[in-house]
Design a protein that fits this description.
Elements (H helix, E strand, L loop, with lengths): L1 E4 L5 E4 L3 H13 L6 E6 L4 H17 L4 E6 H5 L1 H5 L6 E2 L26 E5 L1 E2 L10 H5 L3 E2 L2 H13 L4 E5 L16 H11 L5 E4 L9 H9 L6 E7 L3 H7 L5 H14 L4 E8 L6 H14 L1 E8 L16 H26 L4 E5 L4 E3 L5 E3 L9 E4 L4 E2 L2 E2 L1
Parallel strand pairs: 2-3, 3-4, 4-5, 6-9, 9-10, 11-12, 12-13
Antiparallel strand pairs: 1-2, 7-8, 14-15, 14-17, 15-16, 18-19
Helix pairs in contact: 6-7, 7-8, 11-12
């Protein structure tokens, strides 16, 4: 969860994905003159995310008892009635309308300048046309829709003008970018256009990708372009083919293994991340072991582990459910496996030089997204070469 406020502006509290972060930044600039407003940009991907949304609403009301508290984001659509009943909430703004000034009763004037950030999240795509059996997000985001290449380039230009040294291209289903545009351009074409237009952009990072849709040009860029960060995060979800089929995913385990191996052969330093769900309905102990083994097989060092929770009006919610205790235990085992793989990876990073993008909190990130302590006095946004000597609590030092 993150919170941002402009001087005399609205406070935006963002939960959930990188797309929400990007949209929160746009809302922050749009509501720069609304000092008495608090906005909760909510998440509903799991029942835990909804719990955290409700918790954030209560906390915000205690901190700002006289402010106008509004809720938007996926939970504002998917959990609309429940959130509207909360006494702390003054109103809800539909997720699809949250970037429309009319929804907030503010003038649709020239867009304010983005805040100075070391890293800019740019939402190139929104919505999803797929129907994974566990996922509620299409209910809150709608159909897939893409920015044009020119629109993306203008967004990158705006953020570059205000100091962004790294650009992150994000969306709900980023690899479906372009399917709704004339001539259905590939995501690789968009990435190439950004790199060609901004030859002085030092770092371009991709958000979570559906590996089965990584097109040849995007693969080649990941494999050979040094300005593309060597960090691929896969929307993997599970390591067993039967569960993947019941999830209605479009890939099998072997597809993910083949993609990662091909990338690692071309660019050995590439770091792999993945989303994995623990305790999906009908998951057996054997299925769970496949989930554990793919962490080691793919060397997953950035793992997002989600204990399965049934979401409203999804097919998986009607399947035979596992005991909550079993789900919790399996999620803990997955997290432990990722932690072990990550710790070994961080140890391998010790003693090697890394170009680190310094943040404002005294740390920074390597190209492969390892967190590193930077020397005191390092200017935020600068890229410095650091050779860490130790690892402490997941931080290279």
């Amino acid at each position: 969860m993150s919170s941002a406020t402009t001087p005399n502006g609205a406070e935006i509290i963002s939960l959930g994905c990188r797309l929400n972060i990007a949209e929160s930044e746009q809302m922050r600039t749009m509501l720069a003159d609304e000092s008495d407003v608090v906005v909760i940009n909510s998440c509903a991907v799991t029942s835990e995310a909804v719990r955290q949304t409700r918790q954030a609403i209560r906390k915000a009301r205690r901190a700002r008892p006289d402010a106008r508290l509004l809720v938007t984001g996926c939970a504002a659509d998917i959990e609309r009635e429940q959130l509207a009943e909360m006494p702390e909430v003054d109103g809800l703004v539909a997720n699809t309308a949250k970037l429309d000034p009319r929804a907030w009763n503010v003038p649709a004037s020239t867009r304010p300048a983005p805040a100075a950030r070391t890293r800019a999240f740019i939402a190139v795509q929104n919505g999803c046309d797929h129907a994974c059996t566990f996922c509620v997000i299409p209910q809150g985001r709608g159909k897939s829709r893409s920015l044009t290449i020119d629109q993306v380039l203008r967004e990158v230009e705006r953020h570059r003008a205000y100091g962004a040294r790294e650009v992150v291209l994000t969306g709900v289903d980023v690899t479906s970018w372009g399917y709704d545009l004339p001539d259905t351009p590939s995501l690789g074409k968009l990435v190439r256009a950004v790199l060609d237009r901004f030859s002085d952009l030092p770092r371009l990072r991709m958000s979570s990708l559906d590996g089965i849709e990584v097109d040849p040009e995007l693969f080649e860029l990941f494999a050979s372009e040094p300005r593309i960060m060597p960090h691929i995060h896969l929307s993997l979800q599970h390591g067993h083919d039967l569960i993947l089929k019941r999830m209605k995913r479009r890939h099998l385990r072997g597809d993910a293994v083949d993609l990662v191996r091909a990338l690692q052969e071309r660019r050995p330093v590439i770091a792999v991340g993945a989303d994995l769900i623990a305790g999906f309905p009908t998951e057996t102990a054997e299925h769970h072991q496949s989930n554990l083994s793919i962490i080691r097989q793919l060397d997953i060092v950035h793992g997002h582990i989600f204990p399965y929770s049934p979401r409203p009006d999804t097919p998986a919610a009607r399947m035979p459910q596992l005991d909550k205790k079993v789900i919790k235990e399996r999620a803990a085992e997955l997290r432990e496996a990722v932690s072990d793989v990550r710790q070994n990876w961080l140890q391998r990073c010790v003693g090697l030089p890394h170009d680190v993008l310094a943040e404002r909190d005294g740390s920074g990130y390597t190209p492969a997204f390892a967190r590193v302590a930077v020397p005191d006095g390092t200017a935020p946004g600068s890229i410095v070469t650091i050779t860490p000597r130790t690892v402490e609590k997941g931080l290279l030092t």
